[in-house]
Design goal:
Aspartate Aminotransferase, domain 1; three-stranded antiparallel sheet; about 15% strand; globular
Length: about 400
């Protein structure tokens, strides 16, 4: 007798970590691998701010138990105050903590739409969204991000992909994998479309403090949308260099609370998993209300590494890249005679030991080919990786 896994589980994939399986095999053979695939600052030369750890240790005794399923009060109050500074009014009692934003994304997707419905997600997109929708048998419809317009959402693509079963639009801003930060004009156009079609906006803002240029400004979607229901997610992982803490949160705008029971459903689902990890919830208040000096050094490093990467993309024949202005990713276009960007990424890994993520793992506009790199490694590591990428392209395509 052979017991087969469910069809549901087969629909789930996650390109960012799936490619690590191949890299690990090569490492076990003694190969050196340069990892440019995973957006974890702590794998490189970034450290979690000291005062976050101090808060965790200070509250060790009282965090040994389960926490309230929605999260501890002091953290939720700090989050509510932070949203108010961004222009979004939310009561702390309506905020829920999760084991990272990823858990809350799964909760929210399951509460927003039924199996016969669909949700509109960007293309390219962070892989957790299609994974969650596929798992719940919710239809995933795609709208394109416009590479010719600095990866801003293509408004007409959003319009034409809405149908009678569409329940929500997912907005990832700043964007993973492109590194784009959306303009206020673009966000307002999305809000207008959502209002016209009675759609919910799910706004993923986990990189909102990581703006690489002084001219950039981030706009919280919940502060702009007054007559459209919005759910906003954020957390400690990226802005506060605390990926291992697994602290995320989700909050509704006032319009959603007044016109929907979806937040009640998210709380109900959350109670079934008991609670988010308790000790690290105590880091949220000092993170949001305390010093943010770590951002100055982090953004300085990321800007320097972004600028170096852009210089190398310009020098390597066959690659081009829209300059990212937020987060810590670049999504270069492969302008070479290849059939498949996954094969390109796997060959680069096997031949040169450089691990990147194929663009098709994020979804992308048909007939285009890309890969994603992180801008987190020190420049000497980026230099070694780019040299190997350049060698690979010259050997294969000269």
């Amino acid at each position: 007798m052979f017991w087969k896994a469910t069809e549901r589980s087969k629909r789930v994939s996650y390109a960012i970590r799936d490619i690590v399986v191949e890299a690990t095999k090569l490492e076990k053979q003694g190969r050196k691998i340069l990892y440019l695939n995973i957006g974890d600052p702590l794998k490189y030369d970034f450290r979690t701010p000291k005062h976050l750890w101090e808060a965790v240790f200070k509250n060790k005794k009282k965090s040994e138990s389960y926490a309230p399923s929605e999260g501890i009060a002091e953290a939720r109050e700090a989050i509510a105050n932070d949203f108010k500074k961004k222009g979004m009014q939310v009561d702390s009692e309506q905020i829920m903590l999760g084991n990272g934003c990823s858990e809350l994304i799964w909760f929210a997707m399951s509460c927003i739409a039924n199996a016969c419905d669909n949700i509109l997600i960007p293309r390219p997109s962070y892989p957790v969204y299609p994974a969650a929708l596929n798992y719940f048998d919710i239809g995933a419809k795609f709208y394109d991000l416009d590479e010719e317009n600095a990866w801003q959402p293509d408004i007409e693509s959003i319009r034409k992909n809405i149908d009678e079963r569409t329940k929500a639009i997912v907005v990832i801003n700043p964007n993973n994998p492109t590194g784009a930060n959306y303009s206020k004009k673009t966000l307002k156009e999305i809000i207008n479309i959502a209002a016209e079609h009675n759609l919910i906006i799910f706004s993923d803002e986990i990189y909102d403090m990581l703006l690489l240029d002084e001219t950039e400004k981030h706009y919280c979607m919940g502060s702009l949308a007054k007559d459209v229901p919005v759910l906003v997610t954020n957390g400690l992982s990226k802005n506060f260099l605390a990926t291992g803490f697994r602290m995320g949160w989700i909050a509704p705008n006032e319009f959603l609370l007044e016109n929907s029971d979806i937040m009640d459903a998210i709380f109900r689902v959350g109670r079934a998993r008991l609670c988010a990890v308790h000790p690290f919830q105590y880091a949220i208040k000092p993170a949001l209300e305390g010093s943010k000096d770590h951002l100055v050094e982090a953004i300085k490093k990321l800007r320097e590494r972004r600028d170096y990467a852009m210089q190398r993309f310009e020098e390597i024949d066959g690659l081009s890249c829209v300059k990212p202005n937020a987060a810590f990713y670049a999504f270069p276009n492969i302008e070479l005679p290849i059939e498949d960007d996954k094969e390109f990424a796997l060959s680069l890994l096997k031949e040169k030991g450089v691990c990147v993520v194929h663009g098709s793992g994020f979804g992308q506009e048909p007939e285009t080919k890309h890969f994603r790199i992180v801008l987190l490694p020190p420049i000497e590591v980026l230099e070694e990786a780019f040299n190997k990428i350049e060698e690979f392209i010259k050997e294969r395509f000269s």
